Structure to design on (221 residues):
């Protein structure tokens, strides 16, 4: 579901009402909302993202120990990047290698989960921050999953650092008139930037990108 689609404001309103009115564990409610949102892009993508989330969660716990290992850190980074590399760049690297080794077999096609780039780099930022001791490893699995699957940023970013987002997810603001007013102002401003600025610039940028070989140096600049 695109954020500029007519269905998104209705989904967002329903999510906010559900989160603030339904009694129960807020982290569980938010995670269910995010998974329902992502399921709209295809349930077949969820296992890949869940694997990345669980790998980085447990690697974060191991990297938080005093006897942390640099080898473990590099393994965690590689495992986190592997789905992204396979789904998006396997064909690219195969074509390069095939020019030198024509006998290479064809690579199978991989599913490309929606938002996997943002998801992967957000998970990587968490691993790197834990390894550098900038943050403590998150022991609450639900909170960590919400950090990665938070639906307003899942498909198109931005990439949030754990120290910025986890605190807000753990201690959300109270539902109040000021909260509604500030949130609505941010949403409307973002909608304006997307529809009136970015989409208008794209009318000039996309044709150059799609046929960059024919563009002049000035056009590329």
């Amino acid at each position: 579901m695109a954020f500029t689609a007519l269905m998104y404001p209705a989904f967002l309103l329903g999510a906010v009402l559900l989160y603030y009115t339904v009694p129960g564990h807020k982290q569980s409610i938010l995670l269910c909302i995010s998974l329902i949102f992502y399921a709209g892009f295809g349930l077949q993508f969820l296992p890949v993202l869940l694997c990345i989330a669980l790998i980085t969660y447990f690697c974060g716990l191991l990297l938080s120990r005093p006897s942390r290992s640099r080898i473990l850190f590099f393994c965690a980074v590689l495992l986190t990047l592997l789905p992204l590399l396979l789904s998006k760049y396997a064909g690219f690297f195969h074509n390069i290698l095939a020019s030198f080794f024509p006998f290479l077999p064809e690579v199978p096609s991989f599913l490309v989960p929606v938002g996997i780039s943002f998801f992967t780099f957000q998970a990587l930022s968490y691993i790197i921050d834990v390894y550098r001791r900038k943050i403590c490893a998150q022991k609450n699995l639900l909170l960590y999953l919400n950090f990665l699957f938070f639906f307003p940023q899942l498909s198109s970013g931005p990439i949030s650092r754990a120290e910025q987002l986890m605190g807000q997810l753990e201690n959300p603001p109270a539902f109040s008139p000021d909260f509604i007013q500030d949130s609505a102002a941010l949403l409307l401003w973002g909608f304006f930037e997307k529809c009136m600025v970015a989409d208008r610039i794209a009318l000039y940028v996309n044709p150059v990108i799609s046929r960059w070989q024919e563009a002049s140096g000035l056009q590329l600049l």
Notes: The radius of gyration is 21 Å. The CA atoms of residues 115 and 154 lie 6 Å apart.
